[in-house]
Write a structure and sequence with these properties.
The structure is a homodimer of 339-residue chains. Chain A has 339 residues and is of the alpha/beta class. Helices cover 43% and strands 15% of the residues of chain A. In chain A, the strands form two sheets. Chain A has a six-stranded parallel beta sheet with strand order 2-1-3-4-5-11, sandwiched between helices. Chain A has a six-stranded mixed beta sheet with strand order 7-6-8-9-10-12, with helices on both faces. Chain A is elongated, with a radius of gyration of 26 Å. Chains A and B meet through helix 4, helix 5, strand 2, helix 6 and helix 11 of A and helix 4, helix 5, strand 2, helix 6 and helix 11 of B. Strand 2 of chain A pairs antiparallel with strand 2 of chain B. The first copy, chain A, binds a DNA duplex (30 and 30 nucleotides) through helix 2 and helix 4. Chains A, B: It comes from Catenulispora pinistramenti.
DNA sequence: ATCACGGATGGTAACGTTAACCAGCTGAAC
DNA sequence: GTTCAGCTGGTTAACGTTACCATCCGTGAT
């Protein structure tokens, strides 16, 4: 409860001026060793710690050594892995990280980013919701550097790190086609989420390229979480002429499909790798991406910007990796099709 | 790049004094509606946003509306679920959250907490490494409120939220005993981690209570991550007189055991529930705890402290839940023991 | 003895905001 | 017409730090 000691207190105790204390604390040259020792001693005695709020205010020209990290949901393994690698990069550079989850809600995104910006963050690693275009433009005009991860910010001229969602999905679909599947269902989260849209386009393109029509009865968007996904699968399987294979647009949806299809009734390939995918029966084939690499790259790009890199916005596309574990070959229909 | 507008700029544009702007921005009464409107207009025109760094400096008596969250590893699903619920509570109250991972390294913990404290956080939700006792005492003397989660801070008089690790473990061990197992191996992370120690004690007590000797060949501490755990299992199973059952001290170790025992060669019960545990073959029985509840409770307690609650430190113990999925009944030895 | 110089230290003003007063103005009551 | 209350708005001084400049002292050259 005792008021925190300030440089003034330290100065009084050490019998020197405020400025000398400031110099010692900042590790600047130009202080005699004995004087410095006396100051250090006073600092220890009082338990003094610099107030970085005051410091940041005074030297506002410099950066505040704080960044903001805004993701969809911190509890999601994909985003938490990403967050950890952003935090590691920040720690290496002596930066602090403010975090916020948006829940894919533009209003909460706005709240969070606004609060971060009021705290004078130097930059943001952002998984954008898709809203708040004008708002972000205003933030960037104020000097806040922004780097998008996982999804680009539509209509915003910023750096972006993401994977090639279309190509990754197309590979997965071709894998299913090669196993003889033609009735391949698509399960995805809300189409407004850029990654989901891209993956759906990849699905459509791969199907069309194979000369197949996309059956709208086999398409489900807007699946939030595994429960809804499981229900969608059960629903489709109960209908007439069910699919023989499913493509799932993210890890949670894949989980739902696994729950619904524990009895090997259909083939399944999902986007995003997940823990124990290889230990299931059958092991699940996936399109895998590396969230830690995404986070690391994003952070590095952001710190480059903070250090003054003002080249044109970059767009980094990382590759996905298809991991064939066998689940694409289940329940292959007899040759000849359904005619 | 343009310098951020300040209240001064807004005042000039609106043709009022600085104080009037401050009052409008803070939403204080005592400003005529028309004047306020003029100020609002200027704010919009300039894109003004309050500088909370300056604000916090001036009103240091009040709190800075920022808390720090320090966990072992943000990428670990357990901690990320906890983090998300802490963040939700903070968001509801208009607080910001700084995060840091310690990697169970007291030095990094110290770095991170020190930086948070220099930023004048009002409180900390902390998963303590076990080191830095004196350091934390100093921080708390400065007025930083601390609440520990998952593990108590030994020798520190602070609030703590954790589960009953001994009782949870004992339940698991008794479950295995009831299935006829007597050679039950213990696999855990570093014993210096409080939870691991507690779980080991629970194991020992349950074994002794059943009149069984604890065979040191069946004990492995210090397993960091699933890979080491899998190797430990393989090693034990290859030895003479292998165990018929394993208890694993955390989720990652359980994962390793699953990897090593995919072929149902032994019984297994683990601490911490995990995604897909029920979809494995066999489904894995676990002692489950609720990380979101831990985080929520910790945050609520912390905000209570920040709001002035200065009652004696509380210790909240949440119950664990044993989920029997069948993996405890595998490979039951023939009655009569090993003689 | 004087001067220039460099290293050490101190004084002062700012950073952007708010707390605590204080000064006008209006209008109503006497 | 004076007074006082009530409201609006302004002035000043902080918060804890650092940028900038001034001062002081000892040394060596002239």
């Amino acid at each position: 409860m005792a008021a925190r000691p300030t440089m003034k207190d330290v100065a009084k105790t050490a019998g020197v001026s405020l400025m000398t204390v400031s110099r010692v604390v900042a590790g600047e040259a130009g202080v005699a060793p004995q004087t410095a020792a006396r100051v250090e001693e006073a600092i220890r005695a009082l338990g003094y710690q610099r107030n970085d709020i005051a410091r940041n205010l005074r030297r506002k020209a410099q950066d505040s050594r704080t960044i903001g990290l805004v993701v969809d949901d911190l509890a999601n393994p994909f985003f938490s892995a990403l967050a950890r690698s952003v935090e590691d990069e920040a720690y290496r550079r002596g930066f602090l990280v403010l975090v916020g989850s948006t829940n894919d809600d533009p209003r909460r995104e706005r709240d969070v980013v606004s609060a971060f910006s009021a705290r004078q963050v130097d930059g943001l690693v952002l998984v954008p919701t898709g809203g708040n275009r004008a708002f972000f433009r205003a933030q960037m005009a104020r000097g806040v550097k922004v780097v998008c991860v996982d999804r680009p910010a539509t209509g915003l001229d910023v750096d972006c790190i993401a994977v090639d969602n279309r190509a990754g999905t197309a590979t997965a679909i071709r894998h299913l086609l090669n196993h003889g599947h033609t009735r391949i269902a698509y399960l995805g989260d809300r189409q407004e989420i850029w990654t989901q849209h891209e993956r759906f386009v990849g699905y459509t393109e791969a199907m069309t390229a194979a000369g197949l029509e996309v059956d709208s009865l086999l398409i489900r968007h807007g699946l939030r979480g595994h429960r809804e996904a499981a229900a969608a699968v059960a629903d489709m399987m109960a209908g007439p002429n069910p699919p023989t294979a499913f493509f799932s647009g993210n890890d949670l949806v894949t989980l739902g499909a696994v729950e619904a299809g524990a009895s090997r009734r259909f083939a399944l390939v999902g986007f995003d790798d997940f823990v124990l995918a290889d230990k299931l029966d059958p092991p699940i084939s996936v399109v895998s991406q590396d969230p830690a690499a995404l986070g690391r790259t994003a952070a590095q790009l952001l710190f480059g910007r903070i250090d003054g890199d003002d080249a044109a916005p970059r767009s980094v596309v990382l590759a996905t990796r298809f991991i064939d574990r066998g689940s694409g070959g289940m329940a292959v229909p007899p040759a000849g099709g359904v005619g």
